[in-house]
C-alpha cells in the first residue's frame, strides 16, 4: 500500500499545485473520493475547509486531510487510468504548452502518466536523464527505429549543465517536438507511446488475437488476449469493450505446446487448477512468443517477483542512489581537501607576516641577524614551494577522480547494453534448451518403445519354450494316463467276468430255491386243503421272512437287502485293491 500511495501522490501533486485550494480544494477532494471509490465524509470535509483560522487550506493543512480521510481508505479497487485522467484534466490546461506538438492530447496524457511512474520520489517532481534515456529508447524501439546514442549524449550534456532533470511538461515538449523521432509520422509515434504506456502503466506484458476453444460448445472463436502479471483476459476485439473471461495465473499454472489436430495449427494448452484452456496462435513464432511470455509470468509469480519493468526501474533507482552516494562522498572529500588547503593558505599567510616582521626587525639588527633572516626566508620559501606542490598534487587527484567517475558512468552504460545482450542470449539459450528437451523426449520415447518391443519378443520366446515343455509333459502324462486306463480296463474286465460268474451262480441258486419253494407251496396247499376240509375252524400261520423280499427282473430275490449291501461293499473293496 505504501508504493500505491506514492504513485497516487504524484498525480495528486500535479492537480494540487495547479489549483487554487481556497476555491477548488473541495472539488479536488470530492473528485478524489469519487474516482478512488472512497466513502465521502462531508462533515470532515466541511470542518477542514472552514473559512476561519482553525481550518487551514495551505499545503501543510491539506496533506493531513488527504492522508487521513482519503489515501488511508484506498483499497486498490479503482480504475487507475480514470484516476490519472481526472488529475490530468485538472492540471493540463494550466501547464501544457500552447505551441503545436507532433503528438495528440491523448498521447501527451500517456506521457504524463509514464512520467509519474519514472520520476524521482521527491518534490517538485522531475525525471532524471537516465530515466529519460530509458523512456526514449523504449519509444524508439517500439517505432522500429535505431537509437541515436550520440545525439542523446549531446542533449544530456546540455541538460546536466543547467538542471538535474525535466518536469512532466518539459518531457511532453521534448517528445512532442520530434527531436528523437525524426522521419516518423504521428501515427507511428502514437502507437509507440501507446505500446510503452500499456507495458509500464497497464502492466500489459503481451497482447494479440488468437483462437480459443470453448468449454461447452467446443467451437473455436477469435479473441483478443491481454497478458498481465497475474491474469490473462480475453475480449471480443482489441477495443476491450466486451470482456469474455479471465484466466487467473498463479505458481501452479503451466503451459504446454500441443500437436496440430482437428485442422487447427500452432496449438498450446494453459493448465490451471480448475480449468484447462486450448488456444491456437496465428503462426509458430506467435505461439512460441506467447508460451515464453506465459512461462516467464508464472516463474515470476512462483518467485514472488515484481513485473520486469518495475524490477528494472527499482534496479536503476538503486544504481542512481549508489552513484549519488559515491558522488556525495567524493564531494565531501573535495570539501575536506579544500578546507585543508585554505588552512594551509592561512598558515602561509601567517608565516609570511611573521617573515615580514622578522625582516623588519632584521633590518634594524646587525648583519648576523640579517643573515638569520635571510636563512629563515629561504627556509619558508622552500616550505611554500612544497605546499604549492602538495596543492598541485591534490588538484591532479581531483581531476583523476573526476575522470574515474566519468569512466564509471560509461562502464554503467556498457553494462546496461551488455545486460540487454545477455537477456537476448538467454532467450536463445532457452529456445535451444527447449528444442533439445523435445528431441531428448522423442529419443526417450523411441527407446522405451524399442525396449517394450524387445521385452515383448522375449516374453513370446519364453512362452513358446514353456509351451513346448508343457506339450512334452502333457504328452508324457497322457501316455501314462492311457497306460493306467488300459490297466484299469483290464481289471474292470476281470471284475466283470467275476461278476458274470457270480451272477450265473446266483441264478442257479435262485432256480434251485424256486423249485424248492414251489414244491413246498404245493405241499402246503395240499396240507391246508386237507386241514380245512377236516378242521375248518383251524387257521395255520405261515412262516415268513422278517425283512421285505427284493423283487428282481427274474422274480423274488434269493437274498435280502442287507446281504445285497454286503455284496456291494465286497465288490467295491476288490475293485479298490485291483486299482
UniProtKB/TrEMBL annotation:
<feature type="coiled-coil region">
    <location>
        <begin position="309"/>
        <end position="530"/>
    </location>
</feature>
<dbReference type="Pfam" id="PF00169">
    <property type="entry name" value="PH"/>
</dbReference>
<dbReference type="InterPro" id="IPR057837">
    <property type="entry name" value="PH_SWAP70"/>
</dbReference>
<keyword id="KW-1003">Cell membrane</keyword>
<keyword id="KW-0966">Cell projection</keyword>
<keyword id="KW-0597">Phosphoprotein</keyword>
<keyword id="KW-0963">Cytoplasm</keyword>
<keyword id="KW-0238">DNA-binding</keyword>
<dbReference type="GO" id="GO:0005634">
    <property type="term" value="C:nucleus"/>
</dbReference>
<dbReference type="GO" id="GO:0005886">
    <property type="term" value="C:plasma membrane"/>
</dbReference>
<dbReference type="Pfam" id="PF25530">
    <property type="entry name" value="EF-hand_SWAP70_N"/>
</dbReference>
<dbReference type="GO" id="GO:0003677">
    <property type="term" value="F:DNA binding"/>
</dbReference>
<dbReference type="InterPro" id="IPR011993">
    <property type="entry name" value="PH-like_dom_sf"/>
</dbReference>
<dbReference type="InterPro" id="IPR001849">
    <property type="entry name" value="PH_domain"/>
</dbReference>
<dbReference type="GO" id="GO:0005737">
    <property type="term" value="C:cytoplasm"/>
</dbReference>
<dbReference type="InterPro" id="IPR057836">
    <property type="entry name" value="EF-hand_SWAP70_N"/>
</dbReference>
<comment type="subunit">
    <text>The SWAP complex consists of NPM1, NCL, PARP1 and SWAP70.</text>
</comment>
<keyword id="KW-0472">Membrane</keyword>
<feature type="domain" description="PH">
    <location>
        <begin position="203"/>
        <end position="299"/>
    </location>
</feature>
<keyword id="KW-0175">Coiled coil</keyword>
<keyword id="KW-0539">Nucleus</keyword>
<protein>
    <recommendedName>
        <fullName>Switch-associated protein 70</fullName>
    </recommendedName>
</protein>
<comment type="function">
    <text>Phosphatidylinositol 3,4,5-trisphosphate-dependent guanine nucleotide exchange factor (GEF) which, independently of RAS, transduces signals from tyrosine kinase receptors to RAC. It also mediates signaling of membrane ruffling. Regulates the actin cytoskeleton as an effector or adapter protein in response to agonist stimulated phosphatidylinositol (3,4)-bisphosphate production and cell protrusion.</text>
</comment>
<dbReference type="GO" id="GO:0030027">
    <property type="term" value="C:lamellipodium"/>
</dbReference>
Amino acid at each position: 500500500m505504501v508504493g500505491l500511495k506514492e504513485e497516487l501522490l504524484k498525480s495528486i501533486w500535479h492537480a494540487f499545485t495547479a489549483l487554487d485550494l481556497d476555491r477548488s480544494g473541495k472539488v479536488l477532494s470530492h473528485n478524489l473520493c469519487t474516482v478512488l471509490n472512497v466513502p465521502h465524509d462531508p462533515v470532515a470535509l466541511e470542518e477542514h475547509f472552514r473559512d476561519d483560522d482553525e481550518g487551514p487550506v495551505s499545503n501543510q493543512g491539506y496533506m493531513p486531510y488527504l492522508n487521513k480521510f482519503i489515501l488511508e481508505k484506498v483499497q486498490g479497487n479503482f480504475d487507475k487510468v480514470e484516476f490519472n485522467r481526472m488529475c490530468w484534466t485538472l492540471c493540463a490546461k494550466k501547464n501544457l504548452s500552447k505551441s503545436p506538438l507532433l503528438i495528440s492530447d491523448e498521447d501527451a496524457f500517456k506521457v504524463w502518466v509514464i512520467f509519474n511512474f519514472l520520476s524521482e520520489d521527491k518534490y517538485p517532481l522531475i525525471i532524471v536523464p537516465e530515466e529519460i534515456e530509458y523512456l526514449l529508447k523504449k519509444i524508439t524501439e517500439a517505432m522500429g527505429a535505431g537509437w541515436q546514442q550520440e545525439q542523446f549524449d549531446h542533449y544530456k550534456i546540455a541538460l546536466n549543465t543547467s538542471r538535474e532533470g525535466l518536469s512532466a511538461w518539459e518531457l511532453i515538449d521534448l517528445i512532442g517536438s520530434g527531436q528523437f523521432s525524426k522521419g516518423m509520422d504521428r501515427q507511428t509515434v502514437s502507437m509507440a507511446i501507446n505500446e510503452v504506456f500499456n507495458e509500464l502503466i497497464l502492466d500489459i506484458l503481451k497482447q494479440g488475437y488468437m483462437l480459443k476453444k470453448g468449454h461447452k460448445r467446443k467451437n473455436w472463436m477469435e479473441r483478443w488476449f491481454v497478458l498481465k502479471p497475474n491474469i490473462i483476459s480475453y475480449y471480443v476485439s482489441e477495443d476491450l469493450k466486451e470482456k469474455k473471461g479471465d484466466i487467473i495465473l498463479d505458481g501452479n499454472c503451466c503451459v504446454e505446446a500441443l500437436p496440430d489436430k482437428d485442422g487447427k495449427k500452432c496449438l498450446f494448452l494453459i493448465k490451471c487448477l480448475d480449468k484447462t484452456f486450448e488456444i491456437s496462435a496465428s503462426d509458430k513464432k506467435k505461439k512460441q512468443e506467447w508460451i515464453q511470455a506465459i512461462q516467464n509470468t508464472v516463474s515470476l509469480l512462483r518467485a514472488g517477483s515484481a513485473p520486469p519493468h518495475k524490477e528494472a526501474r527499482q534496479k536503476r533507482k538503486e544504481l542512481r542512489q549508489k552513484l549519488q552516494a559515491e558522488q556525495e562522498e567524493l564531494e565531501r572529500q573535495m570539501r575536506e581537501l579544500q578546507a585543508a588547503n585554505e588552512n594551509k593558505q592561512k598558515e602561509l599567510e601567517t608565516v609570511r607576516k611573521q617573515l615580514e616582521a622578522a625582516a623588519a626587525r632584521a633590518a634594524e639588527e646587525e648583519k648576523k641577524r640579517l643573515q638569520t633572516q635571510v636563512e629563515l626566508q629561504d627556509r619558508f620559501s622552500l616550505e611554500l614551494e612544497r605546499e604549492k606542490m602538495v596543492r598541485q598534487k591534490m588538484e591532479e587527484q581531483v581531476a583523476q577522480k573526476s575522470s574515474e567517475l566519468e569512466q564509471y558512468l560509461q562502464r554503467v552504460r556498457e553494462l546496461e547494453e551488455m545486460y540487454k545482450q545477455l537477456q537476448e542470449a538467454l532467450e536463445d539459450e532457452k529456445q535451444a534448451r527447449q528444442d533439445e528437451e523435445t528431441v531428448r523426449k522423442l529419443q526417450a520415447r523411441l527407446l522405451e518403445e524399442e525396449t517394450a518391443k524387445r521385452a515383448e519378443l522375449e516374453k513370446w520366446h519364453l512362452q513358446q519354450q514353456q509351451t513346448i515343455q508343457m506339450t512334452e509333459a502333457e504328452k508324457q502324462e497322457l501316455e501314462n494316463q492311457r497306460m493306467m486306463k488300459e490297466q484299469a480296463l483290464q481289471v474292470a474286465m476281470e471284475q466283470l467276468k467275476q461278476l458274470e460268474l457270480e451272477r450265473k451262480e446266483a441264478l442257479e441258486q435262485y432256480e434251485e430255491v424256486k423249485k424248492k419253494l414251489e414244491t413246498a407251496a404245493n405241499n402246503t396247499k395240499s396240507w391246508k386243503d386237507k386241514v380245512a376240509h377236516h378242521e375248518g375252524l383251524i387257521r395255520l400261520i405261515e412262516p415268513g421272512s422278517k425283512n421285505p423280499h427284493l423283487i428282481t427282473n427274474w422274480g423274488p430275490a434269493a437274498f435280502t437287502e442287507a446281504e445285497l449291501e454286503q455284496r456291494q461293499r465286497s465288490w467295491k473293496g476288490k475293485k479298490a485293491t485291483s486299482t
